[in-house]
Amino acid sequence: MIYLGADHGGYDLKEKIKAHLAGLKIAVSDLGAFDEEPSDYPDYAFAVAEKVRDGGADDFGILVCTTSIGTCVAANKIKGVRGAVGYTEHAVEQARDHVDANVLCLGAEEIDHDAAVRMVDIFLNTHFSGAERHVRRLSKIQQREQEE
User: In Å, how far from its chain's centre is CA 102?
Assistant: First the structure.
């Protein structure tokens, strides 16, 4: 399942991503916002991140706000979530391959909609490499998370 969330600033891009995923017949759960009325990005980031945390290995989140920074900060407050800002296609690929990111955060005013859709495809089609160095680094993050 792919969980989508956006505040008012990311609403239009979220809708484009949702339509793209529907065209690919990918299961999507839209957690809002459902219009462009002013809203608070942490509400959607927490909702998506909690669904990803509680879901399975094939569950991912995609969050959209104006810059992607706020949603990414908020999502990463949820234990077990590895949110990454998608600012280039290469960064998105590395986020999955190296960090096993499970939430992609996109900035509606930072990238054009076509680039965002390409990044979503890269995010969903790139797998964690499982390389020892990446596993070791993620283990350090998880250990620290457990200490908090």
Answer: 6
DSSP string, 28-40: EEE-S--SSS---
Q: Please tell me the distance from the alpha carbon of residue 45 to that of residue 49, in angstroms, as a whole number.
A: 6
Residue type, 39: S
Candidates 141, 23, 138, 35; CA nearest to 6 is 35
**Residues acting as catalytic residues:** 65, 98
The CATH label, of 3.40.1400.10, 3.10.20.310, 3.40.30.10, 3.40.50.300, for the domain at 2-147 is: 3.40.1400.10
Point out which residues pair with 30 in neighbouring strands: 4
The residue ranges of every structural domain in the chain are 2-147
CA 28, 32, 35, 41: dihedral to nearest 10 degrees?
-130
pTM, entire model: 0.97
pLDDT digit string (tens) for the chain, length 148 residues: 999 999 999 999 999 999 999 999 999 999 999 999 999 999 999 999 999 999 999 999 999 999 999 999 999 999 999 999 999 999 999 999 999 999 999 999 999 999 999 999 999 999 999 999 999 999 999 999 999 7
